[in-house]
Design brief:
The structure is a single chain. This protein has three helices and 23 strands. The protein is mainly beta. The radius of gyration is 19 Å and the shape is globular. Strands 10-11-13-14-23-20-19-16-17 form a nine-stranded antiparallel β-sheet. The chain has a five-stranded antiparallel β-sheet with strand order 1-4-5-6-7, with no helix packed on it.
Length: 366
């Protein structure tokens, strides 16, 4: 994903407060005028989500962005924001003023994406239901590329320290998008010319939930939030189906680690790409800010795995580069009416705290 087209620290403590509410107006006005391309502030402007600069329209509906937050250790604010412009995908994860997520465009941020294919074929970007929207949603849009999404959002609401969404993901490369997808694929070879494909939508229904402490099942771990989702197929049978929860992180998250479930230690891994059955973590170079993913072993099973990837700036990613961490879950065959559920714990903090929290999670769930 991504495909922006340019022309176009913490220790467990008692919860003090937890809230979920529409994003409030900031005291100082936010400028939505992009700095000059190539200037020092341009990349940060595009990649750091600003609710005030993002659309609140989705098809014929209007939603406000929703933020859930919790005070960690009585002094550090962890907040998670879901975006209307990105059809309920997570556009921002912050600890105080530090942004973790690289947004900008409908193929980035922190979102779910899926592939379905038949025996003898392979996964393709031309059959790629994507929570945040289609790549063509960025065409003709000004930076930071947060105009309306093709994905249809029907519910996005906060309650307590949780956020729930429901909607129909777009196809990342739609039938109306005449440019080839990754690897030269053509949508006409992968999508039938009928509704909902002709509307740019996929035949799947996606419901998600984000839970911060104390709403999730490890409430003493305030630097953790739980991401869950259920997808239901309204399409014909596919022999293979997989789901991905992927976070695009800010450019300074250059270090990659694996958490050894046996030793409870983090070990450095190559930054280019790494697949693992052990949980993965990405950190800033100084280790002050890290984001890791943890899935209960019985949920991860034999087929799912963690993956990190680093890509240099290119035309495909809008010259911004990519620093990702994800959980990929292959599910085998999927028939019409079938449902697949996903559950991931997201851990934030400095390197030492994330390692400690991974240990606490693993002990709690095994």
């Amino acid at each position: 994903m991504r495909s922006i087209r340019q022309g176009a620290l913490l220790a467990a403590a008692t919860v003090v407060t937890a809230v979920a509410a529409p994003v409030a107006a900031t005291a100082a006005p936010v400028s939505c005028q992009a700095p000059a391309r190539g200037s020092a502030g341009y990349d940060d402007f595009v990649l750091t989500y600003k609710s005030a600069c993002a659309s609140k329209k989705n098809w014929d509906r209007t939603f406000q962005d929703v933020t859930a937050s919790v005070l960690v250790d009585k002094r550090n604010r962890l907040s998670v924001t879901t975006s209307t412009a990105l059809a309920g995908a997570i556009a921002s994860v912050k600890v105080n003023d530090k942004e973790f997520i690289s947004s900008g465009g409908h193929g980035a941020a922190f979102q779910y994406a899926f592939h379905a294919w038949q025996k003898g074929e392979e996964a393709s970007e031309c059959y790629n239901p994507t929570q945040a929207g289609a790549r063509s949603d960025d065409d003709g849009q000004p930076p930071p590329y947060h105009g309306p999404s093709t994905s249809a959002l029907y519910t996005m609401a906060g309650s307590g320290s949780s956020i729930r969404t429901a909607g129909r993901p777009a196809m990342f490369v739609t039938l109306a998008d005449t440019k080839p997808g990754w690897g030269g694929c053509r949508t006409a070879d992968h999508q039938p010319r009928r509704s909902p494909f002709t509307l740019g939508l996929s035949p799947y229904w996606l419901e998600t939930r984000v839970e911060l402490a104390p709403d999730h099942d490890a409430p003493e771990l305030e630097n953790v939030f739980r991401a869950t989702a259920t997808i239901k197929s309204e399409d014909e049978r596919h022999d293979q189906f997989d789901g991905v929860l992927v976070a695009y992180l800010q450019p300074d998250f250059t270090k990659v680690y694996a958490y050894d479930l046996a030793t409870g230690r983090l070990s450095a891994k190559p930054a280019d790409s790494h697949a693992s059955k052990d949980p993965m973590v990405r950190c800033t170079g100084d280790g002050d800010y890290c984001l890791g993913m943890y899935v209960k072993p019985e949920v991860l099973g034999d087929r799912a795995y963690y993956y990190t990837m680093t890509r240099r700036p290119s035309d495909y990613n809008g010259q911004f580069g990519e620093n990702t961490i994800q959980v990929t879950t292959p599910s085998g065959a999927l028939d019409k009416g079938d449902k697949v559920t996903y559950e991931t714990y997201v851990v934030v903090g400095d390197k030492s705290r994330v390692q400690q929290t991974m240990t606490q999670l693993h002990r709690a769930f095994t």
